[in-house]
Queue: 4 jobs
Job 1
Amino acid sequence: MRSYGGIRITNDGNDCALPVVIDSHSHCSFGCAYCFSENNFGHIKGRDQGLGQTPLATVEAIFSGGGGKQGELFRAALRYDQRNAHGFPAPVQLGGINDPCDNIERQQGWLLRFLKLCIKYKQPVRISTKGAVLLEPDYQRVIAQAPQLFWILVSIVTPDEILAAKVERHAPPPKKRIEVIQAMSKLGCFTGLRFRPVVPGLSDSTPRYPLAYKTLIDWSADAGAQAMEYEIIYVPMRFHGEQRKAWDRMERDIGVPLRKVYMKMGPAQASLRPSATWMEQIVCAIHEHAKQRGMIVGVSEPSWKELNDDGCCCGMVRTHPVFGNYEPRNFTQAIVDARDTGKLIRLADVTPVWAPTTKMSSICNIGGAGPLAAYAKRHMMYSDFIKNDWNNARSVRNPLTYFQGALEARVENGEVCYAFKGQNRRNPLTTPYWRLK
């Protein structure tokens, strides 16, 4: 098996409280129709090279203090020199473009060895999965040694087992994933529901579950889930052949022409998010029911960040003794603080301390050709990238555009700042394609 560079700074950049992501393998065996990694053409191209696996020796080097300059970057992003009062760094994300508990894991056992490294170096980790390998005795014996280090987010988008089998073709059924929440909760792990993506015709209401979102939240809470994070599905604007076939099938199964609906909402871009108004009804309904069940709520949807309980949209609060030491300079935290205190959001509030010394080429592959692209690869820092979006009104990541009017621009002492305004709640009684009653 080839070596795979599965450790990276997340592409979500300054909109993420957990900037370091680890993927165990280059592929995922579950084949979900909506998978956003299928829009990453670099990821797809890598399949031609065969299955790749992230070397655990590289992971251990980072955790133990080695790994050269790249290791130094990851440790800075993980706040190794800014540990909290309990001695913990920031959590690492496990599972970005692959699932660490899929059927590849059943053959390779990579996760089992990774868990032991986390225990050895006392590294908190947030595991995102649809898989069921954590129900296996070998995995539970290891996790039971230090359950406080493991934050398990189980990904489920519908309680409807028939539709789930069509859209998530090789993943375990929803009830089996609920068993994972229950088992991990009993072991003492912090657990949550990863309700993402929320899909009309799948997550709101189905023929077998008229209030599917409430059913799913109730199942999770009853199984011991303490938190929930969610985001509305976004639609890629470019498709390769197999991906197009998968979306064709999914749209037939859910009865919603997602691509046509989204193309009416704005100009084409790599991935198109829906309008804040179109999703208001479902976003607020999910939030309301999760709070009724006593859950911590994280909202990954940019235009509805104001609904977050705290500054981590994965559903964690900064007071948590193990997982609360996440990156504080992120947009979710800035919006929550501005909402609660009225303070202005400044560029420094969303620029991590390690960004000015981190080249963009260390984070992602800068495309393009010619002298400008060559210069960017050699000299452009991550802080420059953040600043460019901050000041460029035409950028899709400019705060006014990205948060769809939840912020308003101010200029103070010559500096562009943003004030929290919040969404103008219209509370529409009916929104096309969402069914909540």
Note: The first strand starts at residue 2 and ends at 3.
Job 2
Amino acid sequence: MIDCPFQLNADGLWQCTQCPYIYPIRSDKPPRKICPMAPSIVEAAKKLGIPENETMRYASILHEWQAEGCPIREQEEIDWIHQTLCMPCESYVRFARCKRGTCKNESHSVELKYMLPMATTCCARGKF
């Protein structure tokens, strides 16, 4: 499950944007609570077409993406990033993989087809 994506409401209390829960105590930091309205990590991964065996590798990225409302980049932007920024990069590996991906571990690579559509992701090298 995914935590509630909280934001401050007009009364200065933390309120989930997905479910009707309002945290009754004023605090500087949002609370942590599993949101009953949020899809599971597996459901979010399926929305992007990520194979289930790779789901946990992307769990934190999916969590951030979900908290922002699952914004998707336009296909034109995805194509431009891939062709203009990714393919010429020294970290680009054939079959549209990046060895500098989210895990930042040279022994792993991430499939760009899963990462580029999520508008909350960015390049580990700061290119986008």
Note: The chain has four helices and five strands.
Job 3
Amino acid sequence: MEHEGDKAVAKWKQISSDFAAQIRTGVLPVGSRLLPEEEIAVQYGVSRPTANRALNELAKQGYVVRKPKIGTIVAEAKPPTKHSIALIADRVAFHLDFPQAEFIAGIQEVLGGEYSLALFDSSGEIAKEVRHIRKAAATTDGIILYPTCNPKNNSVLDWAKQTGVPLVLVDRSPDGEDLPAVLPDEVSATRDAVELMIERGHKRIAFVSFDKPEVSSVRKRHEAYLAAISAHGLPAIERFLPRDLEIMDKARASYIRDMVFALHRGAEEATGFFCVQDSLALGVLDSCEGLSISCPGTVEIACFNEWPPMLLGRPWNIHRIVRRKREMGRVAAQKLMAQINKTPYEAVSHIGATIFTADPSTSPTSASGLSDWILNSIQHSNL
């Protein structure tokens, strides 16, 4: 249960964060006077002590000087660099290597030893994402954000843009937002994977995804799939799973098994499956094995491989689309530092992916062979 005291804490932090951003970006220039605390209290709908605490926090951080009988004045010198960058993930999953170690390594390669990296986990909750963005805006020099893409949170992204908070989106961009971003080249990667299966003789390829129309990466993959099969005059075969199944392993496995049986042995006779993420590809691969369907062979699977490859069980049996994670991290950090240092940068960058073709012959036969296979996969994905 949220208490009144908790609300007050959130409010004074929000107020100090708002004013700090305005000072950093020059909206409130050096020497300007902030509103009296009683007017700030009315503006934000808080008590005067809450407004007073917010102004005291600004003074503590060096943004303002509070002078008796004069008021709160923006400090002559800008506050010192905090030497910290926030990485806000929509969901942290260490067992799935997310955020990926290679991505973080790319960020650190640019930041060097001058900045530390603070990790925030939004846990898929839109309210948490808002709190993390506002907190990071006040306590770090810039934000790298995996957005939830919930349209309810566009207002906090608009606030960050208007107040000049250095921020870079990665992986996806919410509808209606034009913030700096580093995005995977979803279109080319999807097209190339679908073309690969077509070249290998598959004419009935199913698109398999969770129902997430608000997520730009899913939408772009779907559009690219439709364009690729349409160019060859092939039929669109689509299955969108209920999104609740994303966190329901047993129910998802059962659903996918029935889906594979119906698609492959039913009227649609699908022999190719394009899966937008790993859990779907793993479910299709396991279903094929359970139904005695050879894969690769009778059926082939292509997927965006974000998990550590061995979590797919038999990754060499799947056409894996692997993003250049280290490059995405490097470019995200470069865009952020350009904003901090006020130097030119390209607003949006699209980073290509590497496609590893299914090849059962590469299946390791020893522990050392498996280590070599994994290392080789990582090294080639970053070329």
Note: Confidence is low (pLDDT under 50) at residues 1-6.
Job 4
Amino acid sequence: MSRLARALAKVAKWVVIGIASFFILVIIGGNIFRLIGRAQLESDFDPAGQLISIGTHRMHLNCVGAGQPTVVLEAPGFTHSVIWEPVLRSIAPLTRVCAYDRSGMGWSERGPSTPTADSRLAELTLLLEESAESPPYLLVGASMGASISWRYAQSHLDDVVGLVTVDGMPRDFANLKSLGMNTIDGPVLSFLLLGIERLGITPLLYGPPPPAEELSPTQSALEERERFLSTGFFGELLSIDSIVRSATTMGSLDDLPLIVIVRGQPGTFFDPLGERKDEAEALWPGMQAEMADLSAYSELRVAERSDHGIALRQPEIVVAAIRDLVAIYRGGGRLPSARRPF
């Protein structure tokens, strides 16, 4: 071997060692950062509810109030139960109301495998079965969570007495892919993202929290430390493609009382589409109306002042919808402008 070749081999060796050392330091440093942040978070915030075992791991369920039906709140994607704080506070004097964290989000432990639409549905089913909560249920699902709530209602119609979707993922959401609305899939990317998550360095990659003026004090304080709270952020991200595909199975709810809430302001939800954003926004109300058509007793309501984040910006419209469906269940109300009222 020539002197030049030996020199190049030596340089290459040290480059490889340097790169490996860098990544080892990132992993060690990232985990120290995560452990310190998690310890500080746990010293200031206890889970608002209880951790319930579903066999493979524990999930966080926070229930307050008393009475029937039991309202079950399903958070939007990449968020956790605290987003429902104003709704919990308003509904607790009326009836039993529960908010929970999907596996890997909020205080719920990460599950043993990458979440999918079917695993999310199965986990909600197990959580309700293992908890002390009992039907009848009134389900409320926001954004991606609406698909999970809808599929639960569809498969448990005897246990569910009403459903509210809050700017929910419609069953033809996949059609927006033709406009460039892509989801995260692919084995290589999945492997990389889950590797980052399992190595414990996800907190290093979080972006800034939402503007504080949109949040309650509790929500704002938790959002500042969200990077240390949810351990399954990338698992949640990777579940989106499966949930989009599963939305096509959102079928008829017969005559289940249904309120579909749609945003009145465009916001940033379709910003990834660039020039085609307005085209998607124009399609969105019709997609929501089609969801309302899947029940013989439904009403479409518009959150006039809100974009996609209705749970944050206009929670009172969600509270009003829940109150109306509770009244129907108890025999003292009806949907005033339902398309096909009883």
Note: Strands lie at 50-53, 58-64, 70-74, 97-100, 137-142, 160-166, 258-263, 298-303.
